[in-house]
Amino acid sequence: MTIEAAILKNVEKLPDVVKKAVLLYTEFLASQYAKEELEKAQVKPEKKRLAGSLKGTFVLPLPEDFDEPLDDFKDYM
Q1: What are the DSSP calls for 13-73, one per residue?
Q2: pLDDT truncated to tens, each residue of the chain (77 aa)?
Q3: Which of 4, 33, 40, 62 is geometrically suited to a Cys-Cys bond with 66, CB 3.0 to 4.6 A?
Q4: Nearest Cα residue to 26 out of 46, 4, 48
Q5: Threshold 0.85, pTM exceeds
Q6: C-alpha–C-alpha distance, residues 40 and 30, integer Å
Q7: In the chain, where are the structural domains located?
């Protein structure tokens, strides 16, 4: 027995009010599935990075003792 046949067999046992609710719910599920498939199909292109776009942003005057060991690490040296 297929899933569709099992669903139909169970739906036949339900009262008409519940059948309408099942119909509305299956329509909702189908629309959600279609929306998700459409979103997957519409892959957005990645933004291309521009080389040098941050040039000059991180220019800092470095202190003269920049390459000297830090006092915090004297115990480990």
Answers
A1: TS-HHHHHHHHHHHHHHHHHHHHHHHHHHSPPPPPPPPTTTTTTTT-----TTTTSPPGGG
A2: 899 999 999 999 999 999 999 999 999 999 999 888 877 777 777 788 888 888 877 767 777 888 888 888 888 87
A3: 62
A4: 4
A5: no
A6: 15
A7: 14-41
